[in-house]
Each structure stands twice: as C-alpha cells, then as structure tokens.
Amino acid sequence: MVYNLPFFLAADTLFTNYWWKPETQDSMAQYVTNLKRAGSNASTDGPSFVPDKALQDIYSAATVPSPTTSPRGFSTALFGPGWTWEAATENPEQNWNEWWDNERKLWLGPLNLEDFTPVPDSPEGPFKPMAAFFRDLPPPDPLRSVFYTNFSPGVSYSWFVEGKKVMDTKKGWSDIDKQSSIGNLVWPRPTPSRQDVEQEEAVPTATTVLDMTDGYNGGNTLTLTITCPGSESEGTIWLPVQSLTLTTRESLEARVVYKATAPNDVSLRSHIDVKLLSNEEVDSRVFTIGKTTVKDLPHGWTSQTINFTATSIKHTTSVAMGFLIDVVRTDSLANVTFSLSLGQLAVYPTPPPQSVSVGTPSITGAKFAPRAHALNTNADALEGVLTWDTTSTFTPIDSDVQIDDPESITPAWLLQDTPASRFPTFAYFNIYTAPLQDAAAAAHADTGSTVFIGTTGLDGRANRFYVEPACLPRGWDTWDGAKFYIQGVTDRGEVLPWESCATVEHRKHGKSSTGA
User: How many CB atoms lie within 10 A of CB 37?
Assistant: First the structure.
C-alpha cells in the first residue's frame, strides 16, 4: 500500500479490479466509506491536505445483469473497445477496419439509423449507441482556445506534411495526442440539405469515410461522397461540418483545406460558410461575413479563409461551420456524384491589422543529449533526447518610423498584448534526420533529402523527442553522426518554413551537440 499511496493521493478517480462481482458492491461501498482520512492523525478535527474520495470517484467494471440501476453510486468503466480488440487478435480474419466499424457502431450506431442492430438477450429493449445517453456539446469558444482539427481518429498508416507523404507503414501507428474532432455534424452521418428549401425536390445524400491514403497535415482525410438527384434547376447544397459556440461581436477567422473532385461534365463552386445551429433567430443579419480568400496549395489541395462576426443579441451563439456547394451540370436530369476531402479546419481570433506588429514564430536552442550508455556504445550512439525552445521574432523597425528624439513617445512596434499575439502556440513538431558524414557535408545538408522519423506528443512532452534506433531509417548504424531537424506546426495548422525551424548536429561518441 505504501507504494500506491502517492498515486492515490494524486488521483481524482480510482479504478478497482474489474473482477468484482455485482453482489460485492455493498461490502465495497461500506469499506470505502469507512476509510479514515489520510494525511491526518487519528483525529479528524485537524486540517487535511487530502481531498475526500467519493463513491463517484471509484470506477467499477462489475457486470450488471439486470436493467435496475445500482443505488451504490459507483461510476462505470467500459472495457468493450479494448476487450474486443484483444479477443479478436486471435482471429486471423480480423482487421483494423472491421474493428473500427464495430467501434463506431458501439458509440454512434449503424451508418443508417434505420438498420436493425441485433442484441442478444436484451431486456432493456432495442439497441442504443453510447452517444444516445450523452448530450452533444461543442468545443470551447475559439476566442479562448483555438479550434483546430485535421479530422484524425489518432490512428493511420501514413503521415503527411502539407499534402506530401513523409511516412508509410504496413502495421500503422496510433497516437492519442493526434486525435481531433472528426466533424461532429458530418461524421458518420452527414446531413446535406438544399439551400433553396422552397423547391420540393429530393435532397442530396452523402456518406463519409476516413481515407488513410491521403492527407494534408496528419494521417488521413475525411472524404465525403455526395449524390445529387437530377433536377431541372441549379441548386445550392448546405453541408454542415462542425458545431461551435461563439462569443458574439468578436471577429473570428476560419480556414479550411480541402480537395473537390467531380466528373468532367460537372462544375463545382464551394465555399466555407457559417450558419446558426437552430432556427431561433431568423434575422439574416445574425452574421457579418467578409470576403472569402482562396489559395491553391501543392498536391491538389485548396485553402479558403473567411472572416466573420456573430452579431446576435445573445452573449454566445451556437453555429455550424460548413460548405455551400453550387453544382452546375450539363445534363440536369441525371444524378451526379462528387467528393469533398477535408484536410484540416481551424477557427481562431482574427489576426490584427497590418499596423499592429505580430511576432513570427520560430524554433531555437535545439540540443541532443545522448543516453549515458550510448556514449561508449557505437550501436546505440544515436539514442538520446532532442529538446528545443520556441520564440517569437518581430520584424525590424519600419523605415517609415522616424524616432529622432530619444524622448519620443512614438512606439517602434505596435503590439497587441494578448497571449495569442505575444507568443506562438504549437500543436506538435515534426522531426526529421539526415546522415552526418562529415562537418562540411552537414553544413550544406539539403532539407529535401531528410527522412521523417516522428512527431512530438506520444510521451506527453511538448518540446521533447526521444530518438531511438526503432525510429531511425535503415543504414543509420553506418553513419558518422546525424543532423536532426525540428519543424513546428502551429495550433492553426500552419507549418513553419525551414528558415524558422531548428537543427542540431550530433557525431557518434561525441559528448556535445551543435544547434542552429
């Protein structure tokens, strides 16, 4: 017990052995409620530095054989997803896609809600997904916490940086740090609708799939396949993607990266938009939306950026970010199918005007510390810890600013004193390496020939990456040393240019590293 005490004191919940039987819950509750406070002597009158533990803080995985709710007040832990994967590993026909289909069905139900889901011996009635027992809430206000998603479930087979595939694996990878919203309004059941609701015509249908063969920043895209019935009139489709709660009268900027694919005889015009989640306010002036900026990106991607402000009379407004899609076709009576692949979506406070100085994020102070045993072992000489710092750099004083008098009150820089403007925030860092054959070659190493070896986040550390042989490319043991590259990705999904990134060189058997 003495070894478990530090963990118990730090924990806000306690998980019991999951072999507890339902009939033992009474004795377990009695035992827990009679525990004396830790941190005090025999008396309970003195101050306690340990918060009380309630029954709700204890998770029990006991099986409940009847629909009657236990009055003991224990919380519940679900072992279904992990157990099904462990049990299925013995089945040679089991694969990740099949497991993912079962996982999605457990939490969200079948893709078609009208499909029957058989449940053996179910006195509680028809099957209900876990989501049916919880209220869906939007993410935090982007004014306080930038909203960013690359539509990742936290697993994939590949990794992409600005549309370029930098890693491809057969067994795949998993990293809960990379998990983000998959679009709560579009996955797994998108709900496209006609913008011109007065027309009594069939609505489009759509399906979604996590495509792990392509991506922008991350390991996959969220690909939507939309089918529009034949129509004698051109129409606009509204496709909601993600719900948000916004503070009204505060300017925000949204940026989406996507790909659109359609048949040759179909023309698509799509642009990002924002609408109310409910119809409580019908005033069209509830939003002020600025001009849409469109930019073509490498590898077939396109970005769109808009500025908007919610002008509702309420303090906060629940909205849906999505796409308005105009479909123009040569044969109006034929059904048409097209796809939309979503790479990333970010919503954040509108950047300040050009008159305000904004810092440029960069990475500095990169260091490599080899493991102690690696200093004397050639085979492990590239095993160690990469660390670095981040900084914000302001441009030189504008030549138009004339400060002739030392007592002048004219500021050299006009700063917007907010945390977002003061210092950069990063979502994660990409790590690359290249062989260091000699000092001259390393000094002129081409970043285009570097090899991607991983990202931060797996160990819960922000500015730290552990280098081990398993992540290094083949042939690393023949290198004289290595040059490591640290590339930042901001919380808005922007990849830093190489000139703003950091490098560090390490030679085998060397006790120091050189950073830039």
Answer: 15
How do residues 441-458 score in pLDDT, each as one tens digit? 444 445 567 899 999 987
Q: Which regions of the chain are under pLDDT 70?
A: 1-22, 32-33, 35-86, 88-89, 122, 196-201, 232-234, 279-285, 332-333, 354-356, 372-381, 395-403, 410-422, 437-448, 509-516
CA 202 – CA 231 distance, rounded (Å) = 9
User: How many angstroms separate the CA atoms of 163 and 151, rounded?
Assistant: 14
Planar angle of CA 19, 21, 23, nearest 5 degrees: 165
Listed residue (213, 219, 139, 215) closest to 179, CA to CA: 219
What is the residue whose two structure tokens read 């709560």?
184
Q: For residues 312 and 310, what is the distance between their CA atoms, to the nearest angstrom?
A: 6
Count of alpha carbons within 13 angstroms of residue 319, beta-carbon side:
27
* Continuous H helices in 397-506: 419-422, 439-443
Amino acid in position 143: L
Residue ranges in 341-479 assigned as alpha helix (H): 419-422, 439-443
Q: Is 369 exposed, middle or buried (0-12, 13-18, 19+ CB in 10 A)?
A: middle
Distances from the Cα of 516 to the Cαs of 387, 477, 501, in angstroms?
12, 24, 9
Of the candidates 455, 447, 459, which has an alpha carbon nearest to the alpha carbon of residue 485?
447
The C-alpha atoms of residue 431 and residue 488 are separated, in whole angstroms, by 9
Separation of alpha carbons 467 and 485, rounded Å: 12
Q: Is cis: bond before 396, omega within 30 of 0?
A: no
Q: What is the β-pairing status of strands 147-149 and 75-76?
A: unpaired
Which DSSP symbol is given to 469?
A: G
Instruction: Specify the 3-state DSSP secondary structure of 482.
Output: strand
Q: Which of 72, 96, 89 is nearest to 23 (CA)?
A: 72
- Contact between 495 and 379 (Cβ < 8 Å): no
Residue at token pair 């129409």? 235
Buried-state track 141-159, b at ≥16 Cβ within 10 A, e below 16: bbbeebbbbbbbbebbbbb
| Cβ partners under 8 Å of residue 194, min gap 6 | 201, 203, 204, 235, 236, 237, 238
Q: Count the alpha carbons within 13 Å of 439 in the hemisphere toward its beta carbon.
A: 3
Say whether pTM exceeds 0.90: no
- CA terminus-to-terminus distance, the chain: 49
Query: In what helix (H) or strand (E) does residue 307 lie, and over which residues does it extend?
Result: strand 302-310
